[in-house]
Each structure stands twice: as C-alpha cells, then as structure tokens.
Specification:
By secondary structure, the chain is mainly beta. It is built from three helices and 39 strands. A hairpin with a 3-residue loop joins strand 10 and strand 11. The radius of gyration is 26 Å and the shape is globular.
C-alpha cells in the first residue's frame, strides 16, 4: 500500500519553488544590495572544495545547523536528508541500520558489513554500535549519497557519512551548554580550548546527559527508551614545523539505557489469546518479568599526520583504533498478562578494530591534474554471545476447550560466535582540468580491494553442543568511477558520472544449523549512472542542486527471520534489483532575514524474482528492498526577527515527510512502516553579552504534532503478525549556551 504523502510532497515542492523564485525576483528588484548565501566547504573528495564544485550528491551540516536542528545523535540527521533512512537495531538503542538510496542492510552482525560507510575524521567505523549515541564537538557532518567507488575505505555501496570533529583553535576558549526538558531530560556539555604552547594546542570536551524513556515501565527496571550517558573527548594538535601537522584524539562514552519498546500492534495469532495488542502508541506498560538495563562502552583513538612537502605534494597518514563492549537486555512485547514472549537475556558483544591509511595528495601537469593515491589496511575482531527466552502456547489437546491456551516460557540454546575480518586496498583518484578548456573537469577513480573473513559459531544447551562451524573465505574486487563535469557559467555546472560500488561477502553468524553457518554469502555490487546540476543564481540568493540516477544492483545481500522463529535468521544473495531516483536540494535567501531550504528525494525500486532454497514457501513476487520509501521531503525555514535592541531573536521551523517503507525483504503478512510527517521548531534569543562572553537561550520542541509513527517492525514472531516500536512522543526543552 502506497501512502499519499508523495503526491502532497511533490505538489508542495513545486509550489514552494515557484513562490520562492517569484518572491526573490521581487525582492531583488526592491533591494539595491543584499547578502548572498554562505559558501559551503566540504571534504568529500579528500581535499577541501566548494560544495558547488563537487560533482557528488552531497549535503553538509555545520555546527550551527546541528544545534539548530537539535541533532543529538546521528539518527536525527535523516529528517533533513531526503533518500536517507535510518532504523534503530531492535535490541540496541545505540545501534543504527542505515540505508541510502534504498541500499543498506537489516543486520549489524560481525559476519557482514554495513552498506553505508560512516567515517569519523576519515576513520572508517565498521560497526553501527554507538552511532545512535550523542555526538559532541562536531564541526560538520557530510552526507554523500550514492556509491563512492574509489576514495572511501570500505563497503560504501550505498553512500558515506563523514563526521568531522572540531579541532583545537590554539586560543583559550570556553563553551558551556545546559539543557532541560520533558521526560526529565537534562544535558550538560563543557568544551575548553587551550592556548597553543610549544606548537601544541588542545580541546577538551565533556558531556553528560540523561532522559527518561517515552514508554513508562510500571513494573521493575528502567523505562523503555531510558538513556544515561557520560562521554569525554580530548583532541590535541601539534605543529612541530610549518609543514607538519599532527592531530590526535581520544574519546570515551559509557551509556546505560533501557531498550526501546516493541509493542504488539497486530491481532494475536492462534494459541496466543492471552497476548494483548493495541494499534495506538502505548505510553505505559507493566512487564510480568523485571526489565533490565543495558550498557554500551565505546573508546576510540585517532591519529592523523600530514606533511606538506611542497605546494603541490602532501603525504598523509590516518590511523584509527576503536573498541566497543555492549550488554543488551531486550524484552519484545513485554506485558503483564504473559511471560517474556521473546527476550535477549542478555545479548553480549564486543568488537575492536584497527585501520591504517596512507595518502599522497598532489598536482601534476602544471596544476591541471589533482590526484589522491592511497593504500588502506583494516582489521577487526569481535564476539557475540546470547541466551534467549521464548514463550510457547500449550494445552491444545482434550479435555481442554478449543479456545483454551496456556503459555510456557522456555530457554533457547546459547549461541556463541566470533569473527575476524581483514581488508586491504589500493586506490587512485584523478581530476583533470585541460588547460585549453578549463570549464571541463574529468575525474577518474580506480580501486582494488581484498577481504578475508573467518567465523566461529556454536550453539549449546545444558552442556550439550547442538552444532559448531568455522567457515572462512576471501573476496576481491576491482572497481572504477568516471565523472565529466562542465562549468556552463561561473555559477552553474553540470556533471555526469558512472560509478561502481562493492560490498564484501560474509557468513550468517546467527545461523541455527551447521549447513546454514558454513554457507558463504557472496559479494554484492552496484553500477550507478548519475547526472546532476549545481547552480547559484539571483545574486547568489538561490542555490539549486539536483541529481537523477539509475542503479543496477547485483547479488543483493538480504536477511530476514523465519516466520514463527525469531532466532532463525536467513541471510543470502537474492539476485538483482533496479533502483531509479532523484534528489533536489534548494536553498533560498528570500530576504536578508528569511531563508528557506527544501529537499526532495524519489526512489523507484524493483527486485527480480528470486528463488531462495531455504524458504521455498515464500512467493517470489513478494521480494522488496526494505527501507526505501518512494518519496521523502524536508523543509526548513529560518527567520531573524527585526532588532529590538537586545540580542538577536531567530526562529527555525523544520518539517519532514516520508512515504511508507517496508521493514523486511520478504513481505509476507502485509505490514509495513506507514508514512509519517514530523514538525520541529526552535526559538533562540542569541548574541547576548554576559560576563565578557556571549550567551543564548533557546526554547525548542520536537514532534510538535505528537505524530504516532513507527521506527521499525518485526514480523517473525509467532504470536503476532507484527511487533513494532513507536517513535518518541512530543517533547520540549530549553537550552542555555555561553561561550568565552
């Protein structure tokens, strides 16, 4: 079932563009002079370039944008980026499943890799654990839509997200933030910059936040959605000479949380008449079994050394190490009438990773060729252990009446798994601007990748081993991309590109049999054709960036849980898919005080019929790409009120709308994630003088219309056609910021 928001969004977008251009034309006639839009600088091609000169469908959010939108964790960014869709992993509030242009993966296990690469200061983050945690001290987030075939470390078949942290300024500075709001929300953040001494400067950050969950637990344990986080970071910059720059960082986060609540929203199935369901959002639940707290600990080190040998040659080393420990307790469908219907008790995993990348950046042919050459190495190890409980119905035989049921909780076999992954790559990226035709820019990227993976997995119960497996395999890939960009004028350029994307193969670390555990998963690839335009006009008061694309997706890695058995996860290569789509990003400075930003994304996906020997009962024509809504729309309005002699009063209103989306690759029971729209707003009184510093006060609200919308869905449980968590209800809060 396709929702109506797509038609609404396209109509609203067309009206807004027409109205904006008309208003701008009038404003320009009446205003003899006016400011233009600020230039946006990105590092999408590993060097600083203007957003308008970068032939990639990319959006960038600076630190002021992140504050304005109230982005506390990476998942919040999706409401400002069309064709980006994020879902929390079911048993971890701190883990995200990321899809871009319809490309992603449902599972986050150690034996497979994500399809969208996330990078922190150029360091690839292999596991999505922790990406749902709060972010602090960020200078910018860049979202690169579409496969990044040559420049980015690993598995960026869907796209890449760059998180660029704020570096030490070299001068003394202090920033403080205090926040409070609904659901007993409190947050404090302190950031201190030290003066440069002996070539060394540092930035110290500390963040503490706490919030009650939006589903109240009337029984024992934390609320569902609780979060209590403490994090710190130190960044050190050392400049021993004018040509050498060294950046080191260490961050640590410790989070206690209550996992989000999955409620039963479909009619109870046969044998489970005691299980209650409710389609509307529940605000209070009383589990019959005590609900327990979860914990996530994350630590990371980063070291970047750059040496400017000359004006035309730089050598850079990027080294990263990260480790994660997670202990998760989840009780799906918790209620006071039945035992735990299905629960992870607990789900423990740990992971550590190391990466090393060497880059050579330079110019050739009197500056007409810019190039990046690189060599990349990555290794990680991880463990995953869990003991699950499931409740089954009993009492179907005489003399019991036909409608009689009883429910009994049983312990499932303990699963113990580990994985070791290693990757190597070399790449080159060249941009040639012919001297005789400096409006033309030809980009060629090449990459060779090798991946090795080894998995150990076993299941035990009562000292008895059900099965064990120790598969390993290797994959390699050669990919390239080519782009032709042309400057029609100083303010308008167009581009066309062809790019190949690759994601390595793997194994099913959650298999329930030796045969399934040993079955390798092949690599998946995509080939994308894209054309785009980047334009600024009306005295730089309008910025219009648009792209259309078509992707051929081969050997898709899909996963789903078998019906009536949530522990039996099937993972396999499903065949081919076709993805067509478009993106439009429009920013308009209607007046010097009023700015409007609009975004629209469109996806048309189709999957060829596939045969899956593990599930012969599944109908072929029910195969879909999950998390690929047909239409997504965002709008953002910034208004600065006329000066009244005390500070500066600004208003931001943010709106996002998304169509229906499937949450599994096989649609078997007809359920999906319905489309929804969200309204957020922030009113800020800034530029206040306070104790030789500057201060601001903001009042904000999220989900102002109190929309009841789903974050995810699971259909593999035996007692219900679908269990799903609702997003957070309406929230409000107050921020106080002071910097010196």
């Amino acid at each position: 079932m396709q929702s109506k928001p797509g038609t609404f969004a396209r109509s609203l977008l067309a009206i807004a563009i027409g109205t904006t251009i008309s208003t701008l034309a009038t404003a320009q006639d009446n205003a003899p002079s006016a400011q233009g839009l600020e230039e946006v600088i990105v590092t999408a091609e590993r060097r600083e370039t203007s957003l308008q000169d970068t032939p990639i469908s990319v959006l960038a959010f600076g630190s002021s944008d992140l504050e304005k939108f109230g982005i506390d964790d990476l998942g919040d960014i999706q409401h400002s980026v069309p064709n980006l869709y994020m879902r929390q992993f079911p048993n971890s509030q701190a883990s995200l499943r990321t899809y871009m242009r319809g490309v992603g993966n449902n599972d986050v296990g150690m034996s497979t890799d994500p399809s969208v690469g996330v990078y922190i200061d150029g360091i690839y983050v292999a596991r999505s654990i922790g990406l749902g945690s709060e972010v602090a001290s960020l200078e910018r987030i860049e979202v690169l839509r579409g496969p990044q075939g040559s420049l980015y470390g690993r598995n960026t078949i869907g796209g890449a997200i760059n998180m660029i942290t704020a570096k030490p300024t070299g001068e003394f500075g202090f920033k403080g933030n205090l926040s409070a709001g609904s659901h007993s929300y409190t947050r404090g953040r302190v950031e201190v910059d030290t003066p440069r001494a002996g070539g060394v400067a540092a930035k110290l950050s500390l963040l503490k936040s706490k919030k009650d969950g939006w589903v109240n637990n009337q029984g024992s344990g934390p609320n569902f959605g609780d979060n209590d986080s403490l994090g710190g970071r130190i960044a050190i910059n050392w400049q021993p000479t004018d040509s050498v720059n060294v950046d080191y960082s260490f961050d640590s986060t410790d989070t206690d949380a209550g996992t989000i609540y999955y409620q039963n929203i479909g009619p109870s199935l046969f044998g489970y008449s005691k299980v209650r369901y409710q389609k509307d959002r529940l605000d209070d639940v009383r589990p019959s079994t005590p609900f327990k707290e979860s914990n996530v600990k994350i630590k990371g080190h980063g070291l970047t050394v750059s040496w400017d040998i000359s004006d035309d040659l730089q050598i850079k080393s990027v080294t990263g190490y990260r480790e994660v420990e997670q202990s998760i307790y989840q009780d799906y469908g918790a209620n006071r009438f039945t035992p735990r219907l299905f629960a992870n008790v607990p789900f423990d995993n740990s992971q550590d990773q190391f990466s090393q990348e060497l880059q050579v950046l330079g110019k050739l042919m009197d500056g007409s060729v810019d190039y990046v050459l690189g060599a990349y190495y990555f290794t990680e190890k991880g463990d995953e252990d869990t003991t699950d409980y499931i409740t089954l119905p009993l009492g179907f035989l005489p003399p019991f009446p036909p409608n009689y049921t009883d429910l009994l909780e049983i312990e499932l076999p303990t699963r113990v798994s580990s994985a070791e992954n290693e990757a190597r790559a070399i790449y080159g990226h060249f941009v040639w601007t012919p001297a005789a035709m400096d409006q033309l820019h030809i980009t060629l990227g090449l990459r060779y990748s090798e991946d090795d993976r080894e998995v150990e997995t076993a299941a035990y119960s009562g000292g008895f081993q059900f099965f064990s497996a120790n598969p390993n395999d290797s994959w390699d890939n050669q990919s390239f991309d080519i782009t032709a960009a042309y400057d029609l004028t100083d303010d308008v350029n167009v581009y066309a590109k062809f790019v190949q994307g690759y994601k390595t193969g793997g194994f099913n670390i959650r298999a329930t049999s030796e045969v399934a555990a040993n079955l390798p998963l092949g690599e998946e690839t995509v080939e994308t054709m894209e054309a785009g335009i980047k334009a600024q006009f009306l005295d730089n008061r309008v910025r219009l960036n648009a792209a259309v694309f078509s992707s051929d997706y081969q050997d898709i890695q899909l996963s789903f849980a078998q019906l009536n058995d949530p522990t039996n996860v099937v993972l396999y290569n499903a065949g081919q898919a076709k993805i067509k789509g478009a993106e439009l990003d429009l920013t308009t400075l209607i007046t010097d005080s009023l700015k409007l930003t609009l975004g629209y994304g469109y996806l048309d996906t189709s999957v060829d019929p596939v045969d899956n020997p593990q599930t012969p009962a599944v109908e072929q024509d029910h195969v879909v790409l999950p998390s690929a809504p047909k239409n997504s729309f965002t709008a953002d309005l910034d208004y600065t009120f006329p000066s009244f002699g005390y500070g500066e009063l600004t208003l931001n209103v943010n709106y996002s709308k998304v169509d229906d989306a499937d949450f599994v690759s096989f649609v078997r029971r007809g359920y999906n994630i319905p489309g929804y729209d969200l309204w957020n707003a922030r009113l800020t009184l800034g530029e206040l003088c306070l104790s030789n510093g500057r201060a601001s006060v903001s009042i904000w609200g999220k989900n102002l219309a109190d929309e009841e919308y789903l974050l995810d869905g699971i259909e593999g449980f035996p007692w219900s056609p679908m269990v799903a968590p609702y997003g957070e209800s309406r929230t409000w809060g107050v921020d106080f910021n002071w910097e010196y």
